[in-house]
Amino acid sequence: MSAGKTPERDRKAEHIVLALDDRMQLSAHFFDRYAFDHLALPEIDMADIDLSTPFLGYTLRAPLLISCMTGGTGEASRINRNLAAAAQSAGIAIGVGSQRKAIEDPAQVASFQIRAVAPDVPILANLGAVQLNYGFGIDECRRAVEMIEADALVLHLNPLQEALQPEGQTNFSGLLEKIARIVDELEVPVLVKEIGCGLSPETARRLKQAGVEILDTAGLGGTSWARIEASRANDAELGEIFADWGVATPRSIRELRSLGGLTIIGSGGVRNGLDVAKAIAMGADLVGMAQLFLEAANESAERAGECAVRVIRELRIAMFCVGAASLAELQRVELLGATTGREGAR
After folding, report:
1. Nearest CA to 167 among 292, 14, 297?
2. CA dist 62 → 155, 216, 334, 337 (Å)
């Protein structure tokens, strides 16, 4: 199939297959550069650790988000329902993949509709911000939210991915003003996230000035969308050139936290509950995970649920061993290790 003519449903299916390929993951684990100082006398009861987290009018049972991943294919429908079942059972938030295809093709709507499976947790709708330069506006944003009974809308930023996609859309001019308009007019909160290259403080400052109050780092450290899109374009060499382009998640969390006045979702290369604990200690209010849950949900809803239970247990153990009985206390725990330098940024 020639470049630029890949059908959207094929692209979505290819993304699932490639995202499950270990070769698309970065080998650098930026969270490993940090460690907690072990507290042999924590002076708390592990059973009393409080993981509850306010988010979008809900109280989550743990500070976790199953990050926006997929939709638009039959396989994605199965995976999304499995992810939703895990979110519901664990009491955590969940996002869906880009709903652009469902806006354009009503036959794909069902692959995103998970509210019946997850009635009691926050659900995030999702559109590419660049679509605001390609005919989408407030009406399409409202349709995305209403389609899945979402509690908020994610507008994702992905310039590198679009630049490498055979069918990419690369007109990012004037988007900030359009994002600000959506923030003002949409009836639910608007989140902005990257998709694997992270948010710099300059980008975060501009988004904050535009009225965005929730930012998701989606930083460098996990799935390389450069590798995925270059693989789809049969140009692996180009993918390797840009595979490690971006702002590493730990750096992004710290720099966004320093701006103040933001709810920060730390995501990108988060592999386990210990990484979750580190992200919160760095300043994240909520932590997003994708790859681990995608692998589990590809097997079954039960496996995805077990994954959530495991991550929460790992987080609780880490908090116990640093003497943090709440997430607020964990945010005051100092991490050892890398604290300066460009850390994965270009």
Report:
1. 14
2. 24, 17, 21, 26
* Nearest CA among 272, 250, 271, 136 for reference residue 198: 250
Closest of 318, 332, 315, 325 to residue 63, by C-alpha: 315
Burial 62-88 (b: 16+ CB within 10 A, else e): bbbbbbbbbbbbeebbbbbbbbbbbbb
Please indicate, yes or no, if residue 345 is contained in any of the structural domains.
no
- Residue 317: which domain range? 22-337
pLDDT in tens, 60-103: 999 999 999 887 777 889 999 999 999 999 999 999 999 999 99
> Is 80 among the domain residues?
yes
322 within some domain = yes
pLDDT in the model for residue 141: 98
Do the beta carbons of residue 213 and residue 237 sit within 8 Å? Answer: no
Q: For the whole model, what pTM was predicted?
A: 0.91
Which CATH number covers residue 265? 3.20.20.70
Q: For residues 194 and 158, is the Cβ–Cβ distance under 8 A? A: yes
